[in-house]
Amino acid sequence: YLETGRRLTVALSGGVDSVVLLDLLDRLKGELGFRLAAVHVNHQLSPHAKAWAGFCESLCAARGVPLHVEAVTVGKRKDLGLEAAAREARYAVLLAQPADYVVLAHHLDDQAETVLLNLLRGAGVRGLSGMPALRKAGGPTVLRPLLDVPRAALLAYAKQRRLQWVEDESNGDASLSRNFLRAEVLPRIGRKFPAYRETILRASRNLAEASGLLDELGGIDLAPALRAGRLETRYLAGFSAARARNLLRVFLQSQGAPMPDAERLEEMLRQLISAGTGA
């Protein structure tokens, strides 16, 4: 993915995954010829948050890696839970970094958890594609180089390298959906299906391919239906319901609109098709 001279900023929480990623990138920067920095987002949700920021500052200072620390306020919103609100605030900071790539430490276990959570939420093929290894996001490109690596391998590497890291006490909170899956569900699945991580990764890549094909089809269908950036709704009536919904999804995505759920998209399509000329 990289060309010589690119600027990489690692998202550094201070946990074992991001500390391993920082160590790997620090060892590789000379060989691959990229510039390395780090960013730590302080969500101000834990009484230990200030100490975690201090740990990251010491870690980066010892390695000569420039670090930017930014505190965010995670507000309560009816449409978002605490996890989602914190993620939104975090990504706003990450995508504002002066870098070519923001590098995240998501690994194979994270990917399996994400796909299963999205499945339980009723996601479509895009959600079941999981996290992409590379995503252009309107700012720095998001890069996840560890998606093929299981959590156990990262922990073994950290111990071998005698790395230090911090533990987030919220990881033990089983009321959070991801933690519940990680502690209660996936260990039981693993005893029966030891290769479930790799299997889910393979399925997510198949679904990512299907999602890409749907986007391509939607783009083909959208091209003749656009007039000065507006969608000529009469084109929708000429397609099957599934293809019309796909066209509508691609149009909304092209406009940067938040994606409605399946029920609202269906109602939107019904109204657009049944509306009279000029409505």
Q: How helix-rich are the residues, as a percent range?
A: 40-55%
What structural category arises from helix and sheet content? Answer: alpha/beta
Put simply, the count of helices is 10
- What is the tally of beta strands? 8
Mean pLDDT: 92
Give a short account of the largest sheet: 6 strands, mixed
The first-to-last residue Cα distance is: 48 Å
Point out poorly predicted stretches. Answer: none
> Strand order across the biggest sheet?
3-2-1-4-6-5
Order of helices and strands: EHEHEHEHHEEHHHEEHH
- The Rg value, from CA coordinates, equals 22 Å
Assess the beta-strand content as a share of residues: 5-15%
What is the approximate shape? globular
Characterization of this structure:
It is built from 10 helices and 8 strands. The chain is an alpha/beta fold. The strands form 2 sheets. A 6-stranded mixed beta sheet has the order 3-2-1-4-6-5, with helices on both faces. A hairpin with a 2-residue loop joins strand 7 (226-227) and strand 8. Helix 4 crosses helix 8. The radius of gyration is 22 Å and the shape is globular. The mean pLDDT is 92.
SSE layout:
Elements: E1 7-11, H1 16-32, E2 35-42, H2 49-63, E3 67-71, H3 82-94, E4 101-103, H4 108-120, H5 125-128, E5 134-135, E6 141-143, H6 151-160, H7 177-192, H8 196-222, E7 226-227, E8 230-231, H9 241-254, H10 262-274
Short synopsis of the structure:
By secondary structure, this protein is α/β, with parallel strands linked by helices. Helix content is 51%, strand content 11%. The strands form 2 sheets. Strands 3-2-1-4-6-5 form a 6-stranded mixed sheet, sandwiched between helices.
